[in-house]
Amino acid sequence: MAVGEAYFPDMPVIDGLRLGTSRAGIKTPERRDLVVIEIPEGARIVGAFTRNAFCAAPVIVARDHLARCASRGTAARYLMINTGNANAGTGETGLHDARATCAALAQLAGVEEDSVLPFSTGVIGEPLPMERLIGGLPAAFAALDGTAQAWHEAAQGILTTDTRAKGASVTLQIGDETVTINGISKGSGMIRPNMATMLAFVATDASIETSLLDALLHETLDRSFNCITVDSDTSTNDACMLMATGRGAVVADKDSEALEIFRNGLQRVMTELAQAIIRDGEGATKFVTLQVSGAEDRQEALDVAFTVAHSPLVKTALYASDANWGRILAAVGRAPVENFDVSRVVIALDDVRLVEHGGRAASYTEDAGSAVMARDEITIHIDLGRGEAQATVWTSDLSHDYVSINADYRN
Amino acid sequence: MAVGEAYFPDMPVIDGLRLGTSRAGIKTPERRDLVVIEIPEGARIVGAFTRNAFCAAPVIVARDHLARCASRGTAARYLMINTGNANAGTGETGLHDARATCAALAQLAGVEEDSVLPFSTGVIGEPLPMERLIGGLPAAFAALDGTAQAWHEAAQGILTTDTRAKGASVTLQIGDETVTINGISKGSGMIRPNMATMLAFVATDASIETSLLDALLHETLDRSFNCITVDSDTSTNDACMLMATGRGAVVADKDSEALEIFRNGLQRVMTELAQAIIRDGEGATKFVTLQVSGAEDRQEALDVAFTVAHSPLVKTALYASDANWGRILAAVGRAPVENFDVSRVVIALDDVRLVEHGGRAASYTEDAGSAVMARDEITIHIDLGRGEAQATVWTSDLSHDYVSINADYRN
Questions:
Q1: With contacts defined as CB-CB under 8 Å, which chain B residues touch A329?
Q2: Which value does ipTM take for this structure?
Q3: I want to staple A177 with a disulfide (CB 3.0 to 4.6 A). Which of A13, A249, A357, A385 is the partner?
Q4: One Gene Ontology cellular component annotation (chains A, B) (predicted)?
């Protein structure tokens, strides 16, 4: 299941950036499951990783290699992504395996081992099938290409339980120059990113200093991947990488207009990729926006939004298209808000007001509520009536398919 | 669905305490849905109520009436419980209705209006069907009786989506006297009590001062109803009442032996009632104990236990009897623990060690894991290796039936 039309954009070439895939048979024979991304010399690359304390071996190695490259004054040259196996919960063996796969690609490419950053996604706790993975590298390397088709195949090559390839692209005009931002992402279950998403790779041809690039990544993450949840489960393997080849227009702190154009474009790509994960959430039949306003601060708005977004009772009511607004009210009421005066809370489904003055809105009718609930895309507006801060969070519903997918995942 | 054998104890009479039920047709015709409990004069009564900010009208009125009785130096004489309608999210009308039902029973019984405490459970946001509810009161009042059958019928009369009546009873020897503690509870979904459970009523014939009774209630609650979760959703109507008729043995602060015997007995009743809610959790096919040890403090242990207990991925793996221990590891890793060194964590399913040194335990085999997962009752042991504190939490799995029950709840 997935919500809305499937769509993959026609990605423009980003000069010097190439992608290659192969079918290594890591978990499933004949599945495109290995991706290599080549980054040109002189590019900048920044990343954000899961905050899960049991983070996977590739997360530890990628962070370490990023730091080593930085200390040498260079940037990584290759990203290597496998699906079908997360290399998480694998202890020392997992770290050794992640480094050995980097070494294998480094040898093929003629670069240092720490110029390769590894990423894995799939089942937790199984050892990486080293022979098959390393055996698949030459074909992926030989396939490196910068075309729209290469982007599309790479987006397919990182999927697990996803039913759709996810991509977003914008073309910006900065002064006389055209700047491109392309991105791909994957993720469907175990989605409650914390400082990153399952996996996302975003690239631009703009020229941006590393510290500014890093600031832009975290700023846009906080309003995209960090505002989505399928099932409240933060993954061990989340990573979001942002690469700037530096061959295009300069984006710098001192040019506020260029920076603003770039920031808005990047936010759009990041938000589209994050929303694509929710639209393709495991078993999803609804795409739900939680819009919380009137909060004392942004954290309070996020707390309320995530409390409602994680409520199994709200999620099953959404699945059933049942306007059981009492469950939304109950979830808002248990959110961690100090001195909460619920008589000031207003809750609406799209344009239908549900709750005011601590109870059902006078204007509410069951027919009006049911009409909204029948839609595939619904916004739940919650005004706390306490302040000026707001936040938006996106989530999916809880369906029989979610249970089936996750009860059968390892079979 | 429910886990384990259905069992309802043969409750001894508590002198002076009587229970009566009737079929008022509040939501479903011919269902036993109205319960009156009569408490003798001279008894003490204390309660704990939901912390949900959108708490229901009866919760507000019951708290108010408790306080009014206390200010008059007396205690409430009647509890009135209806199922089928929560009288929550009903604003001013709901408060008026709750008070009017108290007045109706007070008139029948010849007591003050504030000597009646109201409790409601069922669907949120519908007005209380006043005519049917008040119409059912005379029959319930006329049925007042102290027998085991009256206790059993009262336990049936407070159920909603529950599939079983829930009761627990202990008989204690304090000095030369026999003390009885009887309790009933209800709850199956929207279960993540916060300072109380859905509904529980516990009575004893012991003689205990109000302040001590209140302390005992909260102490035993914290290790029973506050340690269970079905779906993380705290109800608007949670309440747990403890009554002591004072006709039996004296339990007082200064007699530490009697106090210890009584505290242990009360804890046993409270824990059995809380566990009965989990065994009968919506769609439950497993009864799961989370035993977290080696924490720096109890709150940290509870945080880890609830993070695992709420993980939809852990719960669907339990439903599938799939030893997908990577999901337990991932849930532990995302728990809110500062400076978490996961290499010290040890995780076991019953007696099968799953995780050590940051990865799969050397001794683990899939066969051993699968054998434990096939059981109906499973303990997940998580040793954080950081300190001496521990906590125990009970939960159920996430099944297709949970989704069906909650998708169809209002139909």
A1: 54, 88-89, 124-125, 236
A2: 0.82
A3: A249
A4: cytoplasm
